[in-house]
Every structure is written in structure tokens, then in C-alpha cells.
Amino acid sequence: MADRNSRLSVKRKEKKKPEKVPEQQKKDEEKRNGENEGAASAEAKNSDENGEFQPIELPPFEIVTGWMSPFYFKFQFRNVEYSSGRNKTLLCFRVDTPGGSADPLKGYMEDEHATAHAEEAFFEQVLPNASQECDVTWYVSSSPCVSCAAKLATILQQRKKLRLCIFCSRLFEWEEPEIAEGLKALVRAGCKLRMMKPSDFLHVWEAYVEKEDQSFTPWEDCQENYNYYVEKLADILK
């Protein structure tokens, strides 16, 4: 693990989800939405004028590995059915190489449901070597969106030496047909998709959280919510 005083941060414009937020946060979101709408209008104008899509340049990811705060973990990873206020994706990763000659690469990433999400940023910034043979394990606060599922499926099809296992705290908008199809395609591409059980939350707490002398006890409905999501995932993948 890298410096305990640093952490990996991925900041982007927020992807909206229905949720209750404080008044000031609401104002900030409205401002950001206005900026997004302006960017979309400029993008459409470029497309009309030039007859093709003109991408908008986005700022680079800031890559700093480190330890997650206990608050982030307890709030963002809680496996509730409705993720009100949880507008980030937290991704804890472990990369193991054959032979075990080197210590596993470990850390975490976060985003704000941006145009480019933590899942995509991982392969762009943390593991860009397409020829590297490795086993990648993720513990994520929310399962991939449609776009990320498609990109991950493509990466797995291209990187034959890569094996990916994703443990999800919650299923993101699992009721939407396109989300379900994206998760199915991801599994068909070779990804192992699992829900996080109580022992997995404890593992993340021990391996990725700046806990100091704090101990972790799974919340009261942790097992119940795990059972709920396991059933939903099984229905999606059957």
C-alpha cells in the first residue's frame, strides 16, 4: 500500500440519480447541470457544423493511491436497496501476477458518476499494459453502468491474459433492461460477478480503510440486503 496520507481520487461531473440532497448541494448540482447542458449544446453545434461528433476534452485523472476514510466506506459501501445520496462509485482493487513474485498492487479509486468512471480509469491509469497477465479483483460500491459494462466486456475480449472478478455492494439500476443486458454481456465476456457478503465488507475494512483503532461490525441488515441482491443478480443472469 502506498503512503497512508494519500488517496486515489477521480473527480468528474456528476451523473444524476434521483436522491434527496441538502439545499446547498442541490444548488451546486444545478450549477453543474447547467454547465453540462451548455457543454452538450456546444457539442451538438459542433456535430451539426462539421457533420461529425466532436468530443469535448476532459481533465486528466488524478492518481494517488492510499487508504479510504471510514466514513466513505461506511456510507458509500452500505448495501441498501435505494442508494439515496450515494453519488460516488468507490472501487477497491487488487492486482495479482502469476508466481506471486511481487506484492499485489492494491489501492482504491473514486468518481462522481462522471463521463469516464472509475472502472474505465482503472484500465487507463492503473493497468494500461494490455499484454500483462494478471488476476484483478475489485470491490465496488455499485455495479457497472451500461457504458462501463460494455467497455469492460471489450477489454476482457481483447486482453486474453486478464481475469477479472467484481464484488458489488449494490446493483446499479438493476430494474433497467439495458443494465441487465450489460451485466449479462460482461459475464459472457468472462467476468466473475458477485455480490459482497458480510465477510467481504470486513475484508475491505481491514485492507483498504484508514481505520486506526476502530473495529468494524456489519450493519444490522447487511446479511438481509446481501440475500436480496444475490436473488436479483441471479434473476438477471439466468
Topology:
Elements: H1 23-50, H2 70-76, E1 89-96, E2 105-111, H3 118-126, E3 134-140, H4 146-158, E4 162-168, H5 177-188, E5 192-195, H6 198-208, H7 222-237
Parallel strand pairs: 3-4, 4-5
Antiparallel strand pairs: 1-2, 1-3
Helix pairs in contact: 4-5
Structure description:
- By secondary structure, the protein is of the alpha/beta class.
- It has a single domain, classed as Cytidine Deaminase, domain 2.
- It has seven helices and five strands; from the N terminus they run ααββαβαβαβαα.
- The protein has a five-stranded mixed β-sheet with strand order 2-1-3-4-5, sandwiched between helices.
- α4 (146-158) runs parallel beside α5 (177-188).
- It is globular, with a radius of gyration of 18 Å.
- The protein starts with 22 loop residues before the first helix and ends with a helix.
- Mean pLDDT is 76; it is low at 1-22 and 24-64.
Please report the number of helical segments: 7
Helix content: 40-55%
- Low-pLDDT windows of residues: 1-22, 24-64
Tally of separate domains: 1
Task: Give the terminus-to-terminus CA distance.
Answer: 38 Å
Biggest sheet features: 5 strands, mixed
Question: CATH homologous superfamily name?
Answer: Cytidine Deaminase, domain 2
Please compute the radius of gyration using only Cα atoms.
18 Å
Instruction: Write down how many β-strands occur, each being a DSSP E stretch of 2 or more residues.
Output: 5
Name of the level-1 CATH class: Alpha Beta
Order of helices and strands: HHEEHEHEHEHH
- State the secondary-structure class: alpha/beta
Mean pLDDT across all amino acids: 76
